[in-house]
Amino acid sequence: TTPKQDPLQESASIETTPPKGIAQTPAPLDPQVKQETTPKPQAQNVPSTSPLPQEAPLANVGMGDLQEFACGTWSYDDAKLEATRPTIMRSLDKASGQYLDLTPCNLQSDPSHGKTGQITLAYTQLPDKVETLGPTQTTHTFSLSKANYSQRLCYRAKTRQCLRIDPNTTQEWSSTYSTTTIKTTQTYERPPQVGASTPTHYVRELTENKAERTTHVQKNELNLDADFMQFVEVYEGKYLDDQVKSSPEYKAWVEAVVRPNQGTCSQYEVEELLKGKRVLPSIHNTRIVCVKSGDYVLDKP
User: Fold this and answer.
1) How far is CA 26 from the centre of its chain?
2) CB 169 within 8 A of CB 144
3) Taking a C-beta distance cutoff of 8 angstroms, is the pair 284, 298 a contact?
4) Higher-pLDDT residue of 7, 158
């Protein structure tokens, strides 16, 4: 005989299959069992082949940004107290790790590449050295003269008129100075030349003169004013006062009065136009000639 089975046990052992088209509900995960999952493939961004609208002309693939480098040697301009070097534009080749020259090494600017053209570096000023010289005492004498002539009776003549040389009109004076000179030595350090380990220096000396002046006039026949005599002393390098020399009044006087060897006549001579024993000199056959001129215009306008 076949033994009877318990209905409850029978129903528990039967496996049921869900109808087609219905998704199975997954069994709950055991928290103590490590679950392995396979990652789903992700969508990849495919780069566009069209160029960027603002791409730099030289920004090639594998090249770094353009950079400006100093090249060549320093050129020194002592008047401007600065040094300059030419420049070159370079870009780093990322593949080789080497910089590539993209422009010539020169002083020309190239705005398309961002090239300024030169590197300028100011000299370094070192501390000044100041010396005070003096005061020193000096005395100088000055003399200016103006030639004169007139028309008078000739020698041993009753009516005949001749040209006669008259004595010069003279201005004489002397001045004493107490002069102090301030000497300043300025030293500037230039940038070291390419390949050199030590810098070079540019040195210039500046002097400032100050003077106290006293004057005594011996002859005042030309009636020159005090400024005229003072400016003569400055022009002739005896009165060393930089404040007077740089004044606009002195500069205007030089422009109007100074005429080296072409100023007021200081020596006349009478020239005979007809020479012969039978011809007596007179105003009709002679003339006045200036044979020597001074350095200043002494005639008042």
Assistant:
1) 88
2) no
3) no
4) 158
Instruction: Report pLDDT for 63.
Output: 62
| Residue 184 CB neighbours (<10 A) | 13
User: Whole-angstrom Cα distance, residue 230 to residue 244?
Assistant: 9
Q: What is the pTM of this model?
A: 0.60
Q: Which residues pair with 259 in a beta bridge?
A: none
Residues 117, 105: Cα–Cα separation, whole Å: 9
Q: How many CA atoms lie within 13 A of 209 on its CB side?
A: 17
Q: Which residues, listed in sequence order, are joined to residue 34 by a DSSP beta bridge?
A: none
Q: Which residues contact 255 (CB under 8 A, 6 or more apart)?
A: none
Q: How many residues does the chain have?
A: 301
Residue for token digits 């109808």?
Answer: 19
Determine which helix (DSSP H) or strand (DSSP E) holds 249, and give its type and residue range: helix 248-257
Distance, CA of 105 to CA of 111 (rounded, Å): 15
Contact residues for 169 (Cβ-Cβ < 8 A; gap 6+): 145, 146, 148, 221, 222
